[in-house]
């Protein structure tokens, strides 16, 4: 069972962005087996009330820790924000496998 961290933009529209990534992961779970998703939007939103425009720099340590425990970091190259770039950089630095959402859909986990 692989753990997949789903990196996706957030700050520009937290509610809609969270719904977009939830929809994608739900569809992926219907068609792919053998992975446990980590959606940081849900992890942090469930615990904290972010003010509008919040960029969460102090959460980077927690994001780093989540990524360190994952097998794969997945992202959509058409939806890259500053936060996604940080998460991908963390993953690269740690030597984690990085996949695009399209690769996950077509090639599996």
Main sheet attributes: strand count, strand direction, barrel closure: 4 strands, parallel
Q: Helix-strand pattern, N to C?
A: EHEHHEHEH
The radius of gyration over CA amounts to: 13 Å
Instruction: Give the count of helical stretches.
Output: 5
**Percent helix:** 40-55%
Q: Output the CATH homologous superfamily.
A: Hypothetical protein PA1492
CATH-defined topology: Rossmann fold
Question: How many separate domains?
Answer: 1
Give the low-pLDDT segments.
none
Describe what you observe in this structure.
- By secondary structure, the chain is of the alpha/beta class.
- It has one domain (2-107): Rossmann fold.
- It has five helices and four strands.
- The protein has a four-stranded parallel beta sheet, with helices on both faces.
- Strand 1, helix 1 (14-31) and strand 2 form a beta-alpha-beta unit.
- The longest helix is centred in the N-terminal third of the chain and has 18 residues, at 14-31.
- The radius of gyration is 13 Å and the shape is globular.
């Amino acid at each position: 069972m692989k753990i997949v961290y789903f990196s996706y933009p957030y700050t520009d529209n937290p509610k809609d962005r969270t719904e977009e990534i939830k929809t994608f992961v739900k569809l992926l779970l219907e068609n792919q087996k053998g992975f446990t998703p980590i959606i940081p939007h849900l992890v942090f939103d469930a615990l904290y009330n972010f003010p509008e425009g919040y960029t969460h720099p102090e959460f980077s340590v927690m994001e780093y820790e989540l990524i360190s425990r994952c097998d794969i970091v997945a992202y959509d190259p058409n939806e890259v924000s500053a936060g996604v770039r940080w998460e991908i950089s963390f993953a690269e630095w740690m030597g984690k496998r990085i996949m695009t959402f399209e690769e996950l859909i077509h090639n599996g986990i």
